[in-house]
Design brief:
174 residues
Length: 174
Amino acid sequence: MLNRLLSALERVMLFGTYIALFLMMVLISIDAIIRYFFSTTLLDVYHFTELYLMPLTVFFALAYTQQVRGHVSVSLLDKFVPIQIRRTVLSLAYVAAAICFALIAWRSFYPAWADLVKWRTTAGVVPWPTGISRIIIPIGAGLLALRLLLDSKYALEGKHDSNSDEDVLEKTIV
């Protein structure tokens, strides 16, 4: 049940990543064309991209990437270490990473919330709200922490054995 709920939320956030990437591509392309032909620019496109679209592409895709085991992993010693030790070490690594990302989510939430409540904005040409941009980090990091805790449980159960990694990636439908 928890896995299905988390997976659905990860897919929604991944769709947000797709939209952000598409918007980045379109806005920057239009800006480049307008610069070339009309010697002018779209107002504050790069600031909008930097504040909102880039963090969305990174943080909203983290948990889904973990779900499909798309993050870089080292499997050099897998053949030489007994399976139960591998599962235990992987589970402990997931718990350690979950703690780190939970701390990131926790520590980044309060400044983001303060910016949202006070509706702080940037001092540029367009006053972009900073709270909306900053809340992306705790959402993405918090979801990744939950996924890592769930994966820790699955690692102990043997659902993350290295011989099944290719199957997970092949069955992934986006």
